[in-house]
């Protein structure tokens, strides 16, 4: 359980310097996400913490969906510029309640203005816990 002081520190860190840009914005700071790149891939990593849990005591699907979406959006931005998610499908395979989660995105198809991407979320043991596919429109 998080006490008031811990909650205040979390919000203070998330607000940070107020930047709202790729690699550093409120949600990414709130969840402690890091963003890195490898050739045609983007990796978003974060440590699972109790405040991210659903009522069953595991990582909330919305937090995981956010990380998957960020990995795909940052990959598109890195290679083609900013875009907007037109649709996204997430399949959840296994719960996770601790350790580091890494979301690795890649392109499925590159169009002129429309892009299809995917991202795999893996737990600390390297097991796939979720998979997302999405369609993006370049802005």
For the termini, the CA-CA separation is 41 Å
What is the arithmetic mean of pLDDT?
A: 92
Give a short account of the largest sheet.
6 strands, antiparallel
Shape: globular
| Residues in helices, as a percent range | 25-40%
Relevant CATH superfamily: Hotdog Thioesterase
Rg over CA atoms, rounded to whole Å, is 15 Å
* DSSP summary, beta strand count: 6
Note the total helix count.
Answer: 3
The CATH topology annotation reads as Thiol Ester Dehydrase, Chain A
Q: How many domains make up the coordinates?
A: 1
Instruction: Catalogue the unreliable spans.
Output: none
Give the percentage of residues in beta strands.
35-45%
| Widest sheet: strand ordering | 1-2-4-5-6-3
The CATH architecture designation is Roll
Structural class: alpha+beta
The CATH C-level name is: Alpha Beta
The helix-strand sequence is: HHEEHEEEE
Describe this protein's structure.
The protein is an alpha+beta fold and 139 residues long. It has one domain: Thiol Ester Dehydrase, Chain A (Roll), CATH 3.10.129.10. 27% of the residues lie in helices and 38% in strands. The protein has helices spanning 4-15, 26-30, 61-80, and strands at residues 34-38, 41-47, 83-92, 100-110, 114-122, 128-138. The protein has a 6-stranded antiparallel beta sheet with strand order 1-2-4-5-6-3, with helices on one face. A hairpin with a 2-residue loop joins strand 1 and strand 2. The mean pLDDT is 92.
List keywords for this structure.
single chain, 139 residues, alpha+beta, Thiol Ester Dehydrase, Chain A, 6-stranded antiparallel beta sheet, 3 helices, 27% helix
């Amino acid at each position: 359980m998080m006490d008031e002081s811990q909650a205040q520190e979390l919000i203070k860190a998330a607000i940070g310097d107020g930047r709202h840009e790729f690699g550093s914005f409120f949600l990414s700071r709130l969840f402690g996400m890091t963003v890195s790149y490898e050739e045609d891939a983007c990796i978003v990593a974060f440590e699972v913490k109790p405040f991210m849990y659903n009522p069953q005591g595991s990582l909330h699907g919305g937090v995981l969906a956010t990380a998957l979406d960020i990995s795909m959006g940052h990959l598109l931005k890195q290679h083609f510029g900013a875009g907007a998610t037109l649709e996204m499908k997430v399949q959840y395979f296994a719960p996770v309640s601790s350790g580091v989660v890494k979301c690795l995105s890649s392109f499925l198809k590159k169009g002129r203005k429309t892009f299809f991407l995917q991202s795999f979320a893996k737990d600390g043991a390297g097991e796939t816990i979720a998979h997302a596919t999405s369609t993006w429109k370049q802005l």
